Amino acid sequence: MTDWSALMARPPLWLRVALPCLFFVLVLVAWQVIVRTADISPLILPAPSAVLDDLRQHAGTLALSTWNTLLITLKAFVLGTVAGILLAIAFSRSRLLELAVSPLLVLTQVTPTVAIAPLVLVWVGIDNVDSAILLLAAIIAFFPVTSNTMLGLRSVSHDLHDLFTVRRATSLQRLFLLELPAALPYTLAGARMAGGMALVGAVVAEFVAGSGTDAGLAWRISEAANRLNTPRMFAALFLLGLLGVAISGALSLLQYLCLRRWHESAVSRDR
Amino acid sequence: MAETHGFRIEARGIGKRFSGQAAPTLSALDLTIGGGEFVSLLGPSGCGKSTLLRLLAGLLRPSEGTIRWVAPDGSSASGTRLPDIALVPQEPTLLPWKTVFDNVSLPLRLRGTARAAAAPRVLDLLRALGLEGREKSWPRELSGGMKMRVSIARALVTEPDFLLMDEPFAALDELTRHRLNDDLRALYTQRRPTVILVTHSVEEATFLSTRIVALSRGRVAWDLPVDFGPERAGLRDHAAFQALRGDIAARLRADQAALS
Ligand SMILES: Nc1ncnc2c1ncn2[C@@H]1O[C@H](COP(=O)(O)OP(=O)(O)O)[C@@H](O)[C@H]1O
Ligand SMILES: [Mg+2]
Predict the structure, then answer these.
(1) Which end of chain A has less neighbouring CB within 10 Å, N or C?
(2) Where is the ABC transporter domain (chain B) (predicted)?
(3) Which domains are assigned to chain B?
């Protein structure tokens, strides 16, 4: 069985994809069989086939909602990441600013989004729901980027700082040629978290704020819940899960592409 | 020294006490170095060699005394007229996200030299240091000795007036160290920068230097010229070399004995 244990020790990519897919299919089959044999009401637990039917019949609406949620998540992610990096840079330049402001940022993180949503809605405008959702999602997303980037900016070795000092580098050169590249692995790890949190933020915000002109998946779910349309809820949930996996996968890929040539975390070693 | 070209650095009455230290690391230290000398700093661990080097490099401020750069015409140098200094730390700290080429060209890039304009100089140096064909390698792909070569190439790329090195070869095996000593000696005779080298190896100091300065009790214990002339290939086997080496080792032992 040494072949098998070697395969498990360093599973190739196809195996990493195939195994969870296979397991998911098994779960679906078991689910289908149980629902059919136990005759469970579709209001409580619809069979996977029923969910699939609903997905097919309302493919257009659901695809549009998926697209809307994706769009707002991406916007929030970009907004949150850029703001997060800028904030980390500002904090690393000014200790005073960091000491004064960063404890308050923790406040935005420990206060549940659901709780601040109505306030943001009032500020941004009830007729501006999309912006409110975007802002809420970004508020959730920026924090891991800021805290990770700050850690990264601080982790630059003293010897490298000395090198830049002796060579009389300007502070901009130090920032762009030393500190930001050194922080990149940290920033990317933060961005991966931010991707997931932007999606959570977009969904939670839409639940609370309702929908603007373009309904997203959260809106579809609450709409289906109001009409006791359980298969539709599952269909929307399934799409939401897919979206989450896709975002996380894309960010992992970005991380790998940026770091593969030089960073220990991304370099595979012969053993 | 016969030639007095270039800058010199004058340290007068230097004292350095780190916060929380009972006795100062350096006290009332006087030292003038310049004009293309190759000075080796010797002394027991913890006697303040690295501290002195970092003071000279401007990375630390002295608690007492002054450090002054003096231009060839005898005037104090400041601002844009400061000499070009390069530092080789004990660990070859390369930027892991840059290739060998980009690491070596970094000091030139910091001055605004374009990548293409830097290329001939960088490739020349890589060849001189036995790193030909390695310009596209990443630091993690290099052995310790190769990383140190890259670090030295990076220091030399701007043709610095002052080259400060802190035990650069301490972590290398003897064969590699000899080879890098030979390379360093060759580069030194070609360009004649002023070199200040911290080392634990009496042999290395004797082979490379034109002057050896020993530290003890936070000041200069003794200061000795080394008159072997510029051509030093095969010098390690000569009786005169062995004799001086033995003499220096004996002086260092005497310093140690005086401490306890
Ligand atoms: N940044 C620092 N902070 C506090 N003490 C230091 C610092 N750097 C060096 N020292 C102290 O100064 C003394 C001399 O250190 P160092 O210059 O590194 O010696 P050497 O290089 O000769 O071995 C040591 O006792 C060390 O503990
Ligand atoms: Mg030292």
Answers:
(1) C
(2) 9-242
(3) 3-84+159-259 (3.40.50.300), 92-158 (no CATH)
